[in-house]
Amino acid sequence: MSSKQTDVILIGAGIMSATLGALLKELAPDWKMTVFERLGTPGEESSNEWNNAGTGHASLCELNYTTEKPDGSVDISKAIKVNEDYQVSKQFWAHLVNSKLIRNPQDFVMALPHMSMVTGQKNVDFLRRRQEAMAANPLFQGMEFADDPATLKKWMPLIMKDRTSSEPIAATRIAAGTDVNFGALTRMLFTHLKKQNVELNFKHQVDDVKRTADGRWEVKVRDLNSGQTERHTAKFVFIGGGGGSLHLLQKSGIPESKGIGGFPVSGIFMVCQKPEIVAQHHAKVYGKAPSGAPPMSVPHLDKRFIGEKEMLFFGPFAGFSPKFLKQGSMFDLITSVKPGNNLTTMIASGLNNLGLTKYLIQQVMLSKEQRMEALREFVPDAKNEDWELVVAGQRVQVIKDTPSGKGTLQFGTEVISAADGSIAALLGASPGASTAVSVMLEILRRCFPEQLPSWEPKLQEMIPSYGLKLVEHPELIRQIHATTDRALGLAAAGKLHSVM
Ligand SMILES: Cc1cc2nc3c(=O)[nH]c(=O)nc-3n(C[C@H](O)[C@H](O)[C@H](O)COP(=O)(O)OP(=O)(O)OC[C@H]3O[C@@H](n4cnc5c(N)ncnc54)[C@H](O)[C@@H]3O)c2cc1C
């Protein structure tokens, strides 16, 4: 069977492939690109607006990006990294809007205050110290702390209403947060790519990825409508299959794919669409993870903007399913374990993470009433009939051997690439879609070292902070906030929205 030739193949039509495709179209407009997606439309898996929390992760509310040191001071280095990565995403999106390559940014990003909330005196003291450390940094300027009921009622009326507990409670609030509809953004980016003559193939599943004798990559693709198999070759392949990436990476056989496993964690949200309740909450309010819980199951109550509607999401509750994709197979986990590749890593991980497995099984077993109890810690008078359960996406956490132990569970994202840069895959899911642009820049650095010097002027034009540590350039931070907020329609973010 003859194979069709192209320059770049992107596997999967989620936010990651969309972002890499959009970057490459700006940097190498003449390259031929082909996309294969097993589902019928782009952004149907984790990137879909119903499958993730839509938080523009910038460390403005997530307590797990800071740690308390033994001397009581607060380490904000990870928070700085996550924030800087999000500023990179915002700059690229602003460039696409300013260049009229995508339109109507309000359809995918909205200004929304980000808050952290804690209860108990020890946590309140920590939150105060954390706010002092963060507000002093130019990236987090404007973060406020309150522990007085009057201010807290103004900031989060639904959470404070009918609260009878006398336990100390405090929150931080920063107006510069966002709610991002990553599904809408993914769809917009693929519409843009289509206009730029990128070949998009939906209902096309990649079943195999093999090196050819001349050093190119051949992908074996099944047309799910006709059942026919096609072969396509490219100089560069990006495996952006989300949960589907690990299996394809293993098939590539590159040495870098060895000894890596995946552990799927599913998510469930509780959603309220009653306008009179939704109108009482205008923020993303992140709490503290219960003890033993993985970092991605920090409970939070978010205003969401989906299509024309506003609604509230609470969760996510973690759970376990052996599928690596929401629309995946029950055999995904078992078929990812391979003797001579990752078997010992997976066994070690299973033994190391018995506590997590037990936690996830307990979470799966929760009844709706038990989930309502967790919600009532945020919304004391929440009623069963106002909230429905919605199954979210699957997150496949990376398992690998690290200096700290065999079979260690990772909670971040991992770029795996061949030594010659001809193939790369993205594994893991946190901080996730928010950092898509930084992660794809990392792929450009690893896989296109020859082209990068000639691409850098364009990269600097699109992303003014490219190559710089923003935290060392306070003036640039102010400029970037002003220009991205203007382009993305976020400029009104500073005002306290009336929710009463
Ligand atoms: C519950 C939950 C909450 C989250 N909250 C946030 C959040 O608040 N903020 C944030 O930034 N991130 C969040 N994330 C993470 C974020 O959703 C993901 O990091 C991001 O969407 C991953 O994008 P992707 O393109 O890699 O994968 P996906 O969006 O899953 O896309 C992968 C695509 O590849 C396709 N595919 C797979 N295998 C094949 C194959 N063999 N052939 C062809 N196509 C294939 C799939 O069908 C899919 O369309 C959350 C995730 C979950 C699950």
TrEMBL record:
Keywords tagged on the record: FAD, Flavoprotein, Oxidoreductase, Tricarboxylic acid cycle
GO MF entries: (S)-2-hydroxyglutarate dehydrogenase activity; L-malate dehydrogenase (quinone) activity
Enzyme class: oxidoreductase
Catalyzed reactions per annotation: (S)-malate + a quinone = a quinol + oxaloacetate
E.C. code: 1.1.5.4
Cofactor: FAD
Cross-referenced InterPro entries: FAD/NAD-bd_sf, MQO
Swiss-Prot/TrEMBL GO biological process terms: tricarboxylic acid cycle
Source organism, top-level taxon: Bacteria
Listed pathway(s): Carbohydrate metabolism; tricarboxylic acid cycle; oxaloacetate from (S)-malate (quinone route): step 1/1
SUPFAM superfamilies, per the entry: FAD/NAD(P)-binding domain (SSF51905)
Family listed: Belongs to the MQO family.
Protein name: Probable malate:quinone oxidoreductase
